[in-house]
């Protein structure tokens, strides 16, 4: 008797800046529990982690690479410091306020005269550290990187060509990194159209979609002292409702509790990864409900199946 065909599993890794390192913890737990991944799609940081994993880089190696970035000069370049290490406003002293003023002026100048505030070489170096120089067609797990075209406003799913270029495009946060030119298209972070790409996996034939959402906590409270605070909060609200709408395509949703972390905060990567592990373990009951553990074959069932098959098929 032929065995029942296993359902095809897709894993969607969402965007969310450094909060997305929680994806590594999720992948570690899925591996430990032998959960198969037949196709993988990622947006932004989800594309970075997902692309690396799909290429054959395991969770432990990914953790090592993250630690190398944290200790490298790339983690201390001025744009990261200006964005990621801003002190909490309630705890700011006079020197902090003066420093923040000059940072703000510098960021404004960068944004005014450049398509992106981060140097392309620095950004590419970060991606290259995680992603091997291969084509998407060569990944061990079929992989899709989600981007958006600034010209048409449409979602663009990259499934062929350079894996590095695809990840760079998916991670190109508008205003922070320059867009990736692709023919007549200008590709940027896919999070503006599809923050957690479960729908992409359904189109790729996944029967079961596991989605990992690491977006900002909508319940987070803060002071709104300037236009940037107001704009950032409005963008968070928009992405929250967009991702909730798109998560309707997911069968299992894993939500690591990282929503209170800043978009770029490398000081808490271990905490973020551990939270990914915790949330994935908490979701294993739901995952097993969709993917029951395969029954162990006995010697008797193996012998019976042998005699049920035709001689020509043996």
- Principal-axes shape call: globular
What share of the residues lie within helices?
Answer: 40-55%
Largest sheet: 8 strands, mixed
Distance between the termini: 13 Å
Could you state the order of secondary-structure elements as H and E? EHEHHHHHEEHEEHEHEHH
Helix tally equals 11
Beta-strand proportion: 5-15%
Residue stretches low in confidence (pLDDT < 50, at least 5 long) are 78-116
Structural class: alpha/beta
Radius of gyration: 22 Å
Q: Could you tell me the number of beta strands?
A: 8
Mean model confidence by pLDDT: 80
Can you characterise this structure?
There is one protein chain. By secondary structure, this protein is an alpha/beta fold. 44% of the residues lie in helices and 12% in strands. The protein contains eleven helices and eight strands. It has helices at residues 22-32, 45-54, 59-71, 78-84, 94-113, 120-130, 163-171, 198-203, 227-246, 269-290, 299-308; strands spanning 9-13, 39-43, 143-149, 155-158, 180-182, 185-189, 208-212, 252-254. Strands 1, 2, 3, 4, 5, 6, 7 and 8 form an eight-stranded mixed β-sheet that branches. Helix 9 links the parallel strand 7 (208-212) and strand 8. Helix 1 (22-32) runs antiparallel to helix 3. The longest helix is centred in the last third of the chain and has 22 residues, at 269-290. It is globular, with a radius of gyration of 22 Å. The relative contact order is 0.19. Residues 78-116 have low confidence and may be disordered.
